[in-house]
Specification:
Largest sheet: 7 strands, mixed
Number of strands: 12
Shape: globular
Structural class: alpha/beta
Bound molecules: pyridoxal-5'-phosphate
Strand order of the largest sheet: 1-9-8-5-4-2-3
Mean pLDDT: 97
Radius of gyration: 21 Å
Oligomer: single chain
Length: 378
Amino acid sequence: MYAIPFNRPSLVGNELRYIAEAIESGWVSGDGGFTKKVNALLEQELGVPRVLMTTSCTHALEMCALLLDIQPGDEVIVPSFTFVSTANAFALRGARPVFIDIRPDTLNLDENQLEELITPRTKAIVAMHYGGVGCEMEPILAIAERHGVPVVEDNAHGLFGKYKERCLGTWGVLAAQSFHETKNFTCGEGGALLINEEKYAERAEILREKGTDRSRFFRGETDEYTWLALGSSYVPSDILAAFLYAQLEERQAIQAKRRRIWESYRCRFEAWGETHGITLPTVPAHCEQAYHLFCILLSSMEQRTALIDHLKSRSILSVFHYLPLHLSEMGRGYGGKPGDCPVTEDVSGRLLRLPFCNDLSEKEQEQVVEAMGEFFEA
Ligand SMILES: *Cc1c(COP(=O)(O)O)cnc(C)c1O
């Protein structure tokens, strides 16, 4: 155990009360009262026509692949610098992930390289908003529209973030949210599918409910429900929705805490970092970020390893990510090789994430800052 962990899930107040309410209501399976409240809150706050809570972001992404009829042999453009699920959900349907490199400033997919990767087989482009800072959605959508390719947003980091005053998750035809323990808002494991084009809503409901019209049945729109299409089980228990609803109700307080921690790191490390060869990713002025993580870019992997060890010696856990997907065992199987995504390969070796969670105290943060100072000023 570390005195200062990298992440620490925290309760905001009403979680246990709402969980008890869900249990006492006698409805603990999916789509009970709390799931409806979560869906409605997200629809209203984000301005999304339809939201369906899911068992995870990975499952919401799998639903996207199913809704877009991704078939074996199709190509899906995904950043190499992202979590496995961004690519895996589409690969599971037989698509070949085509890896795109990232911009060195925001670490989001480089829209300038997008058009050259589009082929007649391209069936989707997946934009992941790294750290909750928006990808350049206007040029991305312009290119995608020109080629008739739908855009999906992996918005696991970006809930309540904005690009040009419009919420992340509302730009693509579909978007996926995560409520995993490591995200800004959590219920342990959970997710949501955001449906921005109404034409997907009916099929989404059916494939989320094992290929049946059980959702319509629950609404009293039909006397029975039956098998209509392929589907699976992507419905979370209302107990988890109760947990999540308590967190989402406190969204302003949670985001304010994260913002304070993020800004405090930035103030300490921005100018100081420059003199020690450390850089911070850029947050463009037209992006209102979601404060998902705080990372720094060091000068080399050796320096990063030494810094991680130093922080560990002070009982502070820092972590890195993402190993380039195009160089993973699966990525190489799709033809990925060193040099394909040079910025991803470079950044992946030098990026370090500092402890960051809702209730990281000022004292704990001060200890992190001090330990950083010891390392660089020794
Ligand atoms: C966490 C994460 C996911 C997966 O979320 P789950 O809810 O655990 O399935 C997908 N994409 C990104 C970018 C993530 O950070």
